[in-house]
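User: Hello, can you help with two protein structures?

Assistant: Certainly.
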Amino acid sequence: MKQDLYNQLQNMATNSIYTGQTNIDAVNDKKEMGLKDTLRTLETNLKTLYPDNKQKQFDAWMKETKEIPFPTQKFNEYYWNKTLDLHPQGREAAKESLIWRTETEMNMFKSPAEKEFFLRDKISRFPSWLTKEFSGDVQNLSFRNANSNLNKAKALYRDDLSRRLSDLSDKEMDPDVGIDAHINDLIKLEQLNLLPVADSFNGRFGVVNKDNVFTPAFDLQDRASVFEKDPAGTPGTNEQLMVSDLSPPLIRDYVVGNLANQRSRINLDNKAAEGVAGMLLDQGKLTPDKWGEAFSMFEKPHYETLITRGLQGEIAAGRLKTNDDLSRILYTAVNQYKDFLGDTPDATNA
């Protein structure tokens, strides 16, 4: 008695243990058997209901089985073989009708993406021969949609990069550093996904590392030097390919434009400085020994003209009144600025 009870409990325990795919297959097999019985019953009922009208039998069959589940591929093939057999015009006509209906339904969708989704949903219920019939359409649509999605991704990336570059528009770039050096700095930062945290220091782009020290881009090795614990990580291969392909032209345009603006401002500043320097000479604000300070503020100084303006300034300031004053000032100017004047006779021999 005790042994029988033990055996019963052991069997119960054994049957309650999940055995993975084996149990799933067993369940699906049972479902398949039940569904086959359902289909056989349906076929019998329809032939009884419409004994002389095969078209009505077939139409009712299709309507009643529209939502039938396919637990196994074997049942899928069983169902479609039974469907072909029931078609009033025979199996080949049934196949042609299924192909035509599928094409008609697919063409009701306008976009390639909608058509691909439709076919992929249908394929799960297609018989093997119908899957082969539309495999080319699925591949073509998938290729077109992949290209479309890639182009969308590229457009979004360009837009995002342009926005991030515009955020750097107020950052100073060293105008004495070549364009390509600045471009390489920014491309490297973008490849390491560090452009959003980029800054400039002494006119070069870089980032503040984990030790709170600014590191120029040309000295960066990887993201780990910036983010010790990095959930994002270095961009993957596909993203790197997109960065390499799309970022250089955008970054070049940004660098060229930004440097041109900075150099233009420098030129304007230089022009303003020349105006100030000329005023100092004209008004005699600088004595002859200080004229060199004004000369250095001119981009392309014509020294004889500037010395003449300095002499006029001496007159305006009231320091040049006599010939002796003129000789003394000329002596100082010619000797102090003789290197600027070229082959000018020594003032001591004047």
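That covers the first. Now for the second protein you mentioned:
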Amino acid sequence: MKFHYLKIFIIFIIFIDVVLLNAQEPKEQKKTVKYKEKWTKIEGVAKYRLEIYDIDNKPIKTIETEENEVEIELLPGKYKKRLGLINPFNQIFLYTDWKTFEIIEVPIPRVVYIEKKPIKSDKSQEEIQISVNGIVETTKIYLKDKNNQMIPIKFKQIDTNRIILEINPQTLSADNYDIVIKNSEKKFTEIPNAIQIQQKESFTSQNWKYLIPGIPQKERKQDTKGNILQGGFVGSLLSAGYFYHQAFNYQKQYDNLLLIQLTKSSTFYLISPQFFRNTNGVFFLYQQTQEISKKFHQNVYAFNYSLGLTALFYSYHLIDVYYYEFSLNPSKKEVELMITIPF
């Protein structure tokens, strides 16, 4: 008898557990989707009969209307439909063929990641990558300005969760823009201040760092090029200063050996006192002046060469800065950075 009561008790406990489990896991109710069914109006037809069946040939909806469109509300799923034409005598005289279709619940788009970066207004095109869930065939994307004006933009889909926005900055004013991703009137998402269009700045108004060789190159991760430009410019400039100083010293030595004085009536030479202290006289003076003159011209040549090399390094630097910072399209810049040679 006790065993019988125990068995009943266990069955009762199991029954209670099953009831509680089912109560905790309510079934998810599917939401219906509204859409408009439209067809071409035909003369001589009094009414239209729209029949909708599921895939198992079970009737779902039958609608008769005098208009050539009707609003329908269905659960997501696959269906088939046909249209019947009714004459003034209320008789169906023609049916269209069955056509299958599918109702899909439009999701709200959810942005996972967006590539935010300032865009200069002089660029012809800029590409922005977005990771987003819920993109469908009817998805439309807009830029919204501060006046709430919606500007449609093109995009291309890489895969189910990634798209690339194609923006033409030249058609936009310098300002911040929101991105609106819309699947329907009620299902959309908005990303505030996602796009920043910057006004193009002139070369002379840029930061002073653009004028120093090596700094802009290193900021864009071109360290080898930056080191060569910086080292070459500074080294050649210091060399030019050194050779100029040497040439100036040799010029002073030459003037101390042979002083030239011009007067109104005649030209005469005042020979340095070193001439009288040396037993070789004129020959010594000649050798000294020739040697000093040779060294002077060597240093002048070295100075001109170093100065030209300095100008060459600096000219290359200015061209490089203009190309990368003011002329090159950012969409191509990453490729250029990968294939550029060190110098």
